[in-house]
């Protein structure tokens, strides 16, 4: 007995006018009509699916285009506006809550919002059920954005279906998809009786004519003008011939140009003097009417202009009704019509099309033999047979399905990414600096002077300078490193024993002291500078200022300030004979964090506070590095436990890193919201995971770090890269529907610090005999 109970389909749906809508509807109806399968009933006011009488229920999640609404049939239970990313998120919630066994996704780049349809990943990344994706287009030469989206879709899918062997070849050679993940299932066709065209010709008023037909939405890539140019030569052999062009103009073309394209075709007919032999039927017809139109034709023609047409529903339908077909050799036609099942002619070659059609119209015996062969060879393509094949794929997929887990560091794509990180490029960082220090913000990639500077970002920049002192990296200039250090020194307020934070562009301090967190973060930078700056003089300066600025931290209340100070203490104590007061404060701060965890922690909430905020991973990281340095197992265990819990929260069902969004800040004991996502969260997670790897030697932590780094490169909810690899700039975050195009100081230093750690990890991975401890470099 089948284990399938509910199947959902994502795609366009009739009455929307397009080939994907027709396919989605046909497939859904075929599945619903197959055996014991029945379409589901209406949904209740709460959106739950009503029980059907038995078998497998089907439901469609329909894509709307550009805000248009459609009068959908009852099978459509959810609608997604293509440019509203919130709808994709809600669709995922609908599907997860609906207890569907599998989702059948119909993919075409043009029907989803975002760059190259990247909004779709906001849906797929949240699904907890298997996805079987039918790829209606497989590009041989995708743009970088298309490649990123395609790779993400394939990764999120349990199986991918293509309709031709060419599609399989491209998936294997261009996209490196494993062979066992690919299924080839032809385009379905209606099960229509083989019949002579006479009755249908009479129905439409074409009795006594030799009918040539093209149907489908009109657009310039269809090559209709080439066929029109062939009509004069056809009429020399068959004066009774008529070319019927059935189909409305593509809606996207109408929005952009109105009916200019159709009017140009009509003018072309008029100029050639064949007005009585070319008929335009500006209609989008239902399936019974369409089948009658196909039935009436003597020759069906698809004169497409480009070979990169992976699937043609019009070709499949006409072939399946037993029609003699003349076509250009685009990928689908080349396969379907091979071996004499149709006639292939060169692209854009009107004389060749004319000769081929005239030959068929004047040779009844040949045309009839071609018809009979097409009809016989297409019986395996009827929707009933296609439904059976899809159901077999759904069944096998659900039986084998497991929620995706994060691959271990020694296996899979993440390990390969770790070994081949991007180059370190600092052009944008340099453009964000002047002779005072690092600017806070930017407008796009242009520094924004109106917001001035802050010690937070300049302390981070000083940490980056220390990070780039490691072997294999090009150091920042002495002048630039000194500038960051000078900013930190100038921020010190000796009267209050704290660091100021914000400075205007005209070098006026805007406060007498900054936040506890900015003070702690500056201590971290000083501690690291004391340990690893190339300048002995600057190391001594950092050590002295660290010691002077440390004591006040004991009176702080911010757990993040404690964590930042502990990270600074880890570096400072590794190179300095720390006094008893310093060592005691280190223990006090670590004990405070572990006490907070013990007080707040429950079975389902393994965290230090009742809510999640920014730089979350720094809290477990501080305990991990302190526990490792002091040999305190309790600190290490608490750090590992809390980081494991945070890691689960920051992992999507599809395996992407999803940092805690700023919309979650202030929520109490609730799962984090996904947006807005910021770079400092990825950076914090990378550092914390590498600290965990050093603590317990589990290579899975390296995979976690690499996965978090992938967020910068486009492995995220929107499949949008945050970084420009040529300049080293980093966008300020990920919104619901787009990346934030501003590229400020915090973001660029976040990315470069993470890149430094990943590059150091790549170098360390060359020595597989033992884990090589990595310095904790990031400071956010």
Automatic annotation (TrEMBL):
GO terms for biological process: carbohydrate metabolic process. InterPro entries: 6-hairpin_glycosidase_sf (IPR008928), Glyco_trans_1 (IPR001296), Glyco_trans_4-like_N (IPR028098). It comes from Bosea caraganae. Residues 203-376 form the Glycosyl transferase family domain. CDD domains: GT4_mannosyltransferase-like. Coiled coil: none annotated. GO terms for molecular function: glycosyltransferase activity. Pfam families: Glyco_transf_4 (PF13439), Glycos_transf_1 (PF00534). This is Glycosyltransferase. Keywords: Transferase. Residues 63-189 form the Glycosyltransferase subfamily 4-like N-terminal domain. Transmembrane segments: none annotated.
